[in-house]
Amino acid sequence: MSAHSVGLIFFGWGILLALFSVLVAPRLQAQFSALQILTGCLSLLALILVVMAFGSVTVIATCVVLSGAVMGVCNTIYTEIALEISDAPRPVASAGYNFIRWFAGVVAPFLAPLLAEYFSAQLTFVVAAGAAVAAFVILWVYRQHLQRPEQPVSALAESSTRPLLLALSGHQPAHHVLQQTIDMARLQQRPVELVHIRTWEVVETDAIDVESQERTGKLIDEAGRILAQAGLSVRVSLLEAPASLLVETMLKLMSELNVSGVILGRHDPSVRNHLWHGSLVDALNQKAGADVELVVVPATLSQS
């Protein structure tokens, strides 16, 4: 096999790795749990490795390319799990995860030639398949530890009145969104839960903040002050979640607070976010209870 052929094989592998890591994994997360996704991916990876052990050169080349898709999904899911379940700061959790990840990456190139030399090339792939199966077993044994730590949410004083939930964007001030909230809360005589969920994206094995923490904090504090000055009973909560789990986090929050309505202050639609994660509004429309009113207010009014 020529150098160009090998290069094309790994070019195909890299393309599938990137596409499935960035585009496919977030969509899978919207439908299935991390454990379900990894169970499927590790099973597929083990199967691919077994096929490679006994396949022809063409079959092996095809399997290498296809493995990029499986590994791309695994990269995203494993990274998010490592960052979510750790109580350490994200940079520390990411460093610990990458140490384990690349330690195995260093050991594998050393052991694979030894297995092939002293036993057979087929055994190398079989051992790798066994490692995928072992990872699957470990995940199921310790599945109870894969839950995200609970994030404290400020609760309003005990009341029989269900609150309104204002989920505000942290990208820019939205005074008319606040006015809409004030009008609804006064009309319905309800307290307000002001919540901002600060999201982060997973790219390969790194978590990237998509907004400034300092600027977001100032905007949300200012929004809380405006609502309080309007005479409303309001509490402010700042949460964090991967962008791929924004819908799940919102639905859980709505259930815990038993809200009567949700007001979304939405900034200009992002083509990237819609491409990666789909529409938050559409997802909430489909999954929120029938007794929850959903109001979407664009954060900027069109100029006529």
What does this structure look like?
The protein is of the alpha/beta class and 304 residues long. The chain folds into two domains: 3-146, Growth Hormone, Chain: A, CATH 1.20.1250; 164-298, Rossmann fold (3-Layer(aba) Sandwich). Helices cover 62% and strands 14% of the residues. It is built from ten helices and six strands, in the order αααααβαββαβαβααβ. Strands 1, 2, 3, 4, 5 and 6 form a six-stranded mixed β-sheet that branches. Helix 1 (3-31) packs across helix 3 (57-85). The longest helix is centred in the N-terminal third of the chain and has 29 residues, at 3-31. The protein is elongated, with a radius of gyration of 24 Å. The chain starts with a helix and ends in a 6-residue tail after the last strand. The chain crosses the membrane at residues 6-25, 99-116, 122-142.
